[in-house]
Each structure stands twice: as structure tokens, then as C-alpha cells.
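Lecture notes, unit on protein representations.

Consider one protein chain, 332 amino acids long.
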Amino acid sequence: MIVNYRTPDLTERCLAALAGERKQLPRLRAVVVDGASGDDSVAKLARAAAKPDYADWVKFLPLAINGGFAWANNQAILTLAQDGDLPEFIHVLNPDTEVNPGAVVRLVVELHANPRCAAAGSELVTPQGDAAPSAFYFPSPSREFATAGMLHRLRLLLGIAPNLHPPGKASDVDWVTGASVMFRTEALQESGLFDDGFFLYFEEVELMHRLRAAGWTIRFVPESRVVHLEGAATGLGSGATRPPPTYWYESRRRYFALTGGAAAVLGSDAASLAGMGVAGLKALLGRPRAKNGLRGRDILRLGLWPRSRDRRSSIPALGDPPGRPPAWKAAG
């Protein structure tokens, strides 16, 4: 599954890299989804999908609205289910990625070797070949505080696990990046698809939290390496300094509300604000500030307490028909 939004050239490069994987995975197919880009994406991608090299394994699915990442992926999966064409595994791949040779094969091997693994994620690398953040611990108030305050020593002293899992051999983790992750269809049948109350960000975190709660595991597979042009589609990334958009805060709020209730929303936001206060004091002493772009006034404006819609999950089952509008568009 590749969801395009105004990045048709990157999507074509992503497809070209995937084509090489078919030598070892001849049954590999791709579904390219366009989220109502409103530019020349539909025309470009329709032409690409019709090329002789792609026509027998690439399906193009243009959507009428920009329903977000979760909704767009769900539409592709539900369409395949409706056609009776669901594969054993479903690989979600960002358009701003290029798989290295063998990357997709390695995810398939990992899922076959671990029958209770619901999702296997790749190690992302920069175009220069440096490892990028790929596997993570679930967000928590203590991690929010330590991160916002840049309190590495306190984190170690209190035994607070970091946000990131260190690179290394394949292992079980809390969650992996949605830029390149392969899901087991059986697990999605049991737990449901992405929650389409998220527009963008945190949707894969919530899904993997749900899968872990149901007894499945999540695996990080560093042997599966994928080049990621981070932020090419959204303008956001680990090195971004501009403030995150409103929908990022709304997605964060929804994640905490669904996984821990109102107390988790309030606790995580209070912890972030406290950490920002510590960081401000450190800045007065000449210590560097965190460069994540988060702003306390945006947390106060968009966080602290869940909205009514944040408390309502919106998780389609594999038997549902495609086409229902995403829940984030509903009022409330």
C-alpha cells in the first residue's frame, strides 16, 4: 500500500524500487492510493500504473477526498477484501521511501518465522546511509517529561526507558514506524484496521498498541533497510524546527485518550509542560533547548482534556465495505 498526496514523482521512484523485489516475491502486488491530491498526481500515477512494467501487478485507486493516512490505507485494504483478493501480509509503505534490495523479502521471512507477530517494521536510513528513528517505546507521561526537558541523566536515574529502541538485531518492540511496516492480515482481521479518527500521525502507534493488547507482538527488523526522505510529503521530520500543525496535536490527544483515557491526556500534557519549564530554566543557564518545535501554548489550546470524539474509536473491520467517510471529519 502506497498512499500518495502530491508526491507522484516520489511514488513512481518508490514503485521502481519495489519492482526489484518481485524477483524473489513474484506474487508481490502494489496498490497506489491517491488522497485527492488536486494536482497532476492522478494523471501521472494512472499513466505509471498502465505501463507494461507495472500493469500486471500495480493497482491504482484514486480517492474522492483527502481522508488522511489511516483512512486511505483502510480504503485500499477494504477494496481488496471486497474483491476477495486479500494477501497474507500487507506492506504499508510511504511514497518518500525506496526499499533496498531484499528489504521486503526480509519482512516476509520475519513474519513467517514468528507466527504471533502482527507487524514487522524496517530500519529507515537516510539517503546518506545513516540509521534513522525506526522502532519506539509507547509514549508515556514520564517519557514526555524527560523528552521535553532534555533530561537524559534523570531518565537514566529513574529508569525511564528512552523513546527509541537502539539499533541492533531483530527484536520485539512496542511499535515501529508506519513508513515501512508489514502487517499480518490475520491480526488485522482480529483487531481491526487503522482508526480513521486520526488524520495523520499516531495512527500506527494506536493500531500497534491495540495489537499488542490483543497478545500479538511487533518486530523491528534492521536487516530490512529502507531509504526514507523524511518529511518529503509532510514537511515534518525528526529534525524539523517549525511547530507541528494542529492535526499533530489532535492526533496525539486522541492517542492518549483511546489508550489511557482522560487521565492519560492530562498527565502527558502536564508532563510535557513541566518538561518545557525545566528546559526553559536550562536555557537561562545557557543550556541548549530541544529543537522539536513543540509549543506550550499549542498544548494548552489543543490538549489537556479529550474532546468527545476522541473517546470514540472508529475502527473498520475487514468485512466492512469501503467508502464510509473518516471519523475525524465528523463534528463533536
